[in-house]
Every structure is written in C-alpha cells, then in structure tokens.
Design goal:
Elements lengths: L1 H22 L15 E25 L5 E21 L4 E18 L5 E18 L7 E12 L7 E14 L6 E13 L6 E18 L2 E15 L4 E17 L5 E14 L3 E13 L4 E14 L2 E16 L3 E14 L4 E18 L2 E16 L6 E10 L5 E4 L3 E9 L13 E5 L3 E6 L9 E9 L5 E16 L7 E15 L9 E12 L2 E12 L4 E15 L2 E13 L6 E16 L2 E14 L3 E16 L2 E14 L2 E15 L1
Antiparallel strand pairs: 1-2, 1-34, 2-3, 3-4, 4-5, 5-6, 6-7, 7-8, 8-9, 9-10, 10-11, 11-12, 12-13, 13-14, 14-15, 15-16, 16-17, 17-24, 18-23, 19-22, 20-23, 21-22, 24-25, 25-26, 26-27, 27-28, 28-29, 29-30, 30-31, 31-32, 32-33, 33-34
Length: 668
C-alpha cells in the first residue's frame, strides 16, 4: 500500500512538473487532459434596455401657381432592447451574438402630397443585428447574419428621408492556411421615402461574392474576385432591373535581386443583362521597374472588348512613364502613350497619340521654400468618318452647382445621358439629381442642390455622339506654376502662388468642328495663422468654350476645445462672370460645426449651414439649415434631443422642413 501511494505521488509530481514546464510556471496546475464539456446552451452575456423615441417631421413646399403642400408626421415608439452573447453546444460550435429592439410604433400622418388624408396607424417596430459564428476555430467557419436598421437621413436644404435597410446572408471562410477564400451570399433591401413624395426609392439586391487569395511562391500573389448581383431599383420616375456578373483575376510577380521590380496582370470580365446591357473583357498589364534610387519607370498595356446595348467597341492602349529625381530638388516625369478604338459595326476608328513632360523644382530659400513646375503636353486625335451615332462610356466628370462640367465631341444626343456613381451601381435622374444643357459644340452638366449627387462628387457619364465627318485634332498645352511658402519670420504661414495654362487646338479639315482655345491665369495666396486659414484667389479663363472670370475668398477656423469638444467654421465667397455665355453667378457659403462637452456626460452640438446663389440665368437660391443636438449619459441612462430646421427658397418655390427627435434609453 505504501509503495502504491509513493508511486501515485511520484506520478502526480511528474505530471505537475510537466504541466508547469508547459505553462511556464503560470496559472493553475492541471493534472491530466482538460476537455471542454458539451453544453446545450451557455449564456455569456445578457443586457436589456427600455427605449422611448418620438419624432415630429413637417415638410412644406410652396410653388408659384400651385397650392401649398404640407406633410407632417408624429411618431411615438416604445421598445424593449436586448444585447446578448451565447454559446450553443460549446464555444466553438455556435457563437451567437444579438442586438435587437422590438416594440410598437404609433404614427399619425397628415399628407397633402399623397392625396389629402389623415391617417393614424399602429405597427410593430423591429431593428436587429444577429450573427451566428459556426465552428469559428474550425477549417471552414460559417457566419450567418440578419440585420435590419431604420434611420432618418438628413439632406442639405431639403426634407429628411426615412431609410429602412434589411440584409440577410451567410459567408464561409475556407482554406485559411493555403488560399484564404470567402464565399458570401446576401439579400439586401433598401427603402427610402419622404413626406413630399419627391423620393420614393426601393432597391433590392441579391449578391453572391467569392474572394480568394493564394501565394504560389514567395514572389507571387494570385487573387480572385467574383460577384453575381441581381438588382431591382425603383425610383419615382425610373425603374432599373439588371443582372450583373463581374470577375477579376490578378497575378502579381516580384522579381529582381531584391524584388525591386514587379509585374501585375489583371483580367476582368463583366456581363450585364436587363437594363444597360453590357459585355466587357479587359486585360491589363503593368510593369514597374526600379532602376535606381533616383530612376523608376512604369509600362501599361490595356486590351478591351466591350459591347453595350448592341454596340461593340475594341480598345488597345499603351503608355510608358519615366520618373527621375535629381538631388531631391528636381523631379522630372515624362510619359508617352498611344491608343486605338474601333467600332466594327460602323467601321469607325479613333487613334490617339500623346506625350508630356513635367518638371517639378523645390528649393530652400530665405524664410521658407520655393516650388515651381513646368509642363508640356501634345495630343493628336485621328477620327474616321462617323456615319452612325456611337456611345462614349464611363467618362468621369466632377459635378458641382457652380461651374458646369463639360462634355465635348460634336453633336451630343441629350436623351442618351446615363449618369452613375463610380461603382456603376447607383444611377441618377435628370431633373432630380442634375440638369443638362445642350449647345452646338458641348453639353453642360450641373448638380441639383437637393439631389442625391454630393457637391464635388465624381460620376461616370455615358453619352452618344451623333454622326460626324472624319477629322484630325492636334492639341498643344503648356503650364507654368510657382508657390512661395514662408516658414519663418513674421509672415510665417503666408504662401502666394500663381499658375498659367495655355491650350490650343488645330482641326483638319477646317470647319468640321470648333477648335478649343483656352488660356487660364490663376493666382492667389494662402495664409495660416494659429487656427485660422485664409485664401484669396483670382482666375481668368479666356476660352472659346465657356469662358469666365472668377474671384474666390475663404476663411476657415479649426479649434480643439477639449478632449470631446471642437469647433469648425468655414466661410467662402465665389463670384463668376461667364461673359456672354451664361451671365454671372455668385455663391456664398457659411458652415459651422461645434461640439461642446458641457458637463461630464452632457454634450451639445450645433451645426449651421448657409448657402446663397445669385444666378443671372436660373435665378436666385437661398438655403439655411440649423441643427441642434443634445446628448446626455448618466450611468445606465442615455438621452438625446435633436432639432433640425431647413429652408430652401428659389424664384419658383419655397421648401421648409423641420425634424424634432427625442430618445431615452435605460439599460439594465
């Protein structure tokens, strides 16, 4: 018996020593192998909350010659919220997290826009974000999710929009060690509407996505990106339905003694049926060479075959770029390229040849730094006779509500415009999001303040050119720019600058098109002192197309007032004289955004936005928007109050919108 006890004790000590050695003498001593027990259900965390929310929305639009329309909504919402995490089976089987709110909406609506009626309704309210991670530590983790959210989208100088988004889906991660791959399937719906009936948007997307990455070797990387998307979008005036497949394979290779060079090959295909039918196949090769610390070069080759709505276009494009740095003070960049576009259906060809060189010089001078640049560019465009209309695809343009974006190319068919965001998934509507004005030699685009296109947003434009005779266009341009930045002394922060640009064209045969002749002189100064930044600028654009003289001035103030407090004020004035083309335009803007932590847990935010346009062509527009937000938190209780008022007045209409929201949450 004693011998048996001694043997058992020795065995236990040996096991304990082994356990201590493996754990580094940290934590409890474990004898034997520990196994996680199987449990039907394990609750890791559970939190509950009571929520109260109310809001009042009021929109009013008065148009000349039409009766005033008023729409109001009063909403009361009481809901129970939960936030929880639980495990089913064991921690690696199903890891379930859920945040949800369930309650009732009591809604009273008075509407003139949808027919004069009063409606009082009660409905079930729900928001949720549920995720179930299955076998998270296994070779193929699966995540199943369901999400639903409701929000009030504020638009500048316009009424608020109710947005409801629901998303259901699942994804699985595979081959984590060799080729990390994610496969995901989602169903997403988004509903947007306002009380004036100007926005009635519904978008449904079913999407299958495959993402994969693989490293065949130390110097190689291979990636695959495939998306299958079914889209049904209904707007107030336009319905869009299409099915789109997009796939891209990218191969990257590093080579050279120290992997200083790389070759990137990308093959993309896109197929879209339904509206805006399209078939695209594109091969892109990019070679980057690092010759030395001061000399680098890059070479691009693109081959594309594209068919949109029955019109086939083929593109072959190549470009070489060389960059040289001399003592870090002079940087020279030179490039040359050529491209050929063919439209086989019409025997149309377009050949482009271009070359440019740019010199950038930086020099330390008394009290600061001097920068200067010189650039030269030449472009030759040869187009054959165009007997039938052809479409130009994905022309990028930046839209604003001031200076119009221009489309050139002879006779542009205005009804052919298709404008989308950079992803090509969201399409915009003429008259709601932008306006277009056609001239004999161009088409001008302007955003609408209350539309869905943001100020300064870049969009993609498809448009169709009418028949034109053959022509050769030679374009020469050069530009000079200089800036002196004072970094020391009493004028520290002062930075005057100037830029001159000249563009000239010759078209053969003469008279087939209108050549563009443009000279632009822009000069001004920035001045930064403390938290203030000032800018004053003059621009004189003498052009055969859309000339103007502009005067710009702005001031900005940024101040950090504390850990959770700040203030930003931005004032600007722009004055455009378009001579005889479209009169004059003046834009004044003012913006204030400030957050102040009044006491511990109590925060006040104030936001003011003002805009006034005086346009001799389209009339005057004045907008003023004010927002006040109050947020308070005390232990497990949070409260917020938001008040927003927006006024927009034009020569033809006046729109007023108010939104008041109050919310109270108590957590347990």
């Amino acid at each position: 018996m004693a011998a048996a006890l001694m043997l058992a004790l020795a065995s236990a000590l040996a096991v304990g020593a082994s356990a201590r050695a493996q754990s580094g003498d940290e934590g409890p001593v474990i004898v034997g192998e520990s196994r996680e027990r199987f449990r039907d259900f394990e609750l890791d965390r559970f939190e509950a909350s009571l929520q109260f929310y109310t809001r009042y929305l009021n929109d009013r639009i008065k148009q000349n010659g039409a009766p005033t329309r008023r729409d109001s909504e009063l909403l009361f919402r009481e809901s129970l919220g939960i936030s929880t995490r639980a495990f089913i089976g064991h921690r690696n089987l199903i890891d379930l997290t859920a945040d949800a709110s369930l309650g009732f909406d009591d809604n009273k609506i008075d509407s003139d826009s949808q027919g004069i009626f009063n409606e009082h309704e009660s409905d079930l309210y729900s928001e949720f974000n549920i995720n179930a991670l299955i076998l998270g530590k296994g070779p193929a983790p699966v995540n199943v999710f369901a999400r639903r959210s409701q929000s009030l989208l504020d638009r500048s100088f316009a009424g608020s929009i109710d947005t409801t988004t629901t998303e259901l889906g699942a994804n699985v991660r595979l081959f984590a060690e060799t080729a990390p791959t994610t496969l995901e399937l989602t169903h997403r719906t988004e509903d947007l509407n306002d009380r004036l009936g100007l926005v009635r948007d519904n978008r449904t997307e079913d999407t299958l996505t495959l993402l994969s990455n693989w490293r065949p070797g130390e110097r190689q990387r291979l990636s695959l990106d495939y998306t299958l998307k079914f889209v049904d979008e209904q707007r107030r005036t336009v319905d869009t339905n299409y099915t789109r497949q997009t796939g891209q394979v990218i191969h990257e290779l590093d080579f050279g003694p120290e992997n200083e060079h790389d070759l990137r090959s990308a093959l993309l295909f896109r197929n879209q049926s339904g509206d805006f039918r399209e078939n695209t196949l594109r091969l892109t090769e990019t070679l980057s060479l690092h010759h030395s610390d001061t000399l680098r070069s890059r070479y691009n080759l693109t081959l594309e075959d594209r068919d949109v709505s029955g019109q086939t276009q083929r593109l072959a494009q190549g470009r070489a770029i060389v960059r040289h740095e001399l003592f870090a003070s002079l940087v020279t960049t030179a490039s040359a390229g050529a491209s050929r576009t063919e439209v086989p259906n019409d025997d149309f060809t377009r050949d482009e040849f271009d070359a440019d060189v740019n010199f950038e010089y930086t020099k330390r001078v008394p009290y600061g730094r001097f920068n200067a640049s010189v650039s030269l560019a030449a472009l030759r465009l040869d187009e054959s006779d165009r007997g039938r209309p052809i479409t130009i695809f994905d022309a990028p343009r930046t839209l604003s509500s001031g200076v119009p974006a221009l489309l050139f190319g002879g006779t542009i068919l205005e009804d052919s415009l298709v404008i989308s965001d950079l992803s090509g998934s969201v399409f915009y509507t003429d008259g709601l999001d932008y306006t277009s004005t056609a001239f004999s030699d161009r088409l001008e685009l302007l955003r609408i303040i209350t539309g869905s296109i943001a100020e300064g947003q870049t969009v993609l434009v498809d448009y169709t050119l009418g028949p034109e005779p053959a022509a050769t266009v030679d374009t020469l341009s050069y530009a000079l720019a200089a800036r002196y930045t004072v970094e020391r002394g009493s004028l520290r922060g002062f930075s005057p600058y100037a830029e001159y640009r000249d563009v000239s064209q010759k078209i053969s045969p003469a008279g087939s098109r209108i050549p563009i002749e443009t000279t632009t002189l822009r000069y001004g100064a920035d001045y930064r002192v403390g938290q203030l930044t000032f800018n004053g600028e003059v621009e004189n654009r003498d052009s055969s197309v859309s000339p103007f003289d502009a005067l710009r001035a702005s001031a900005r103030y940024d101040q950090r007032l504390g850990l959770n407090s700040y203030m930003t004020v931005n004032l600007s004035h722009e004055d455009f004289d378009f001579n005889s083309s479209r009169g004059s335009l003046t834009i004044d803007r003012a913006f204030l955004d400030g957050v102040q932590e009044l006491t511990d847990g109590l925060t006040l935010r104030l936001r003011l936005l003002y805009r006034m346009e005086n346009d001799s062509l389209s009339g005057d527009t004045t907008g003023f928007e004010q927002t006040v937000e109050l947020n308070w938190k005390l232990r497990q209780t949070t409260m917020f109050l938001s008040i927003r008022n927006s006024d927009l007045e034009t020569d033809d209409a006046q729109t007023q919108s108010q939104a008041i929201a109050f919310g109270l949450t108590r957590r347990f």
